[in-house]
Amino acid sequence: xxxxxxxxxxxxxxxxxxDYNEIVLxxxxxxxxxxxxxxxNYRPISLLPTLGKTFEKLLNITLTNFLEQNKSIDxxxxxxRQNRTTLDNIIRAVEIGKQAINAKxxxxxxxxxxxxxxxxxxxxxxxYRLQEHNIPNILIRWLFSYLDNREIKxxxxxxITSSLQPLAxxxxxxxxxxxxxxxxxxxx
Length: 188
Fold this sequence. Notes:
It is built from 5 helices and 6 strands, in the order E-E-E-E-H-H-H-H-E-E-H.
């Protein structure tokens, strides 16, 4: 997928368009006290031009509206939803706990943490989930224009690596990535 480049820079191809299938990631150190010699302590950051971000937001709104209208998102899901926060789930858990205590019942809570969640999303699995939720094919094609044949390069201290093709994962920092992650976890 190509959008007109809205800034001048070396990212533009010969036609003056930005190639979204080739991403340059900047390695940013996370955690002030963490060892800066360990690659695990770096977060890959890629920047999109304004037009690309705007288009992503429109796709995300369209996809979210479709999922909500078709009741594909659980009403109790708070993550990656407008006007919802993780505080909603905390309040709900406290209320359920209080009710169990008042009724002299046992109460069990299970929390799930998925390490490197964005990096481990199966691209084929995500396509399957989108089709399972009857997402229109045109929308699926638009969503995967960001993921198919993707190549990444990493820049660190002014050195750029050769191109790598990721086998899994969705780019972090994109509103669409959060939605794609949540879809990959939704079971019908």
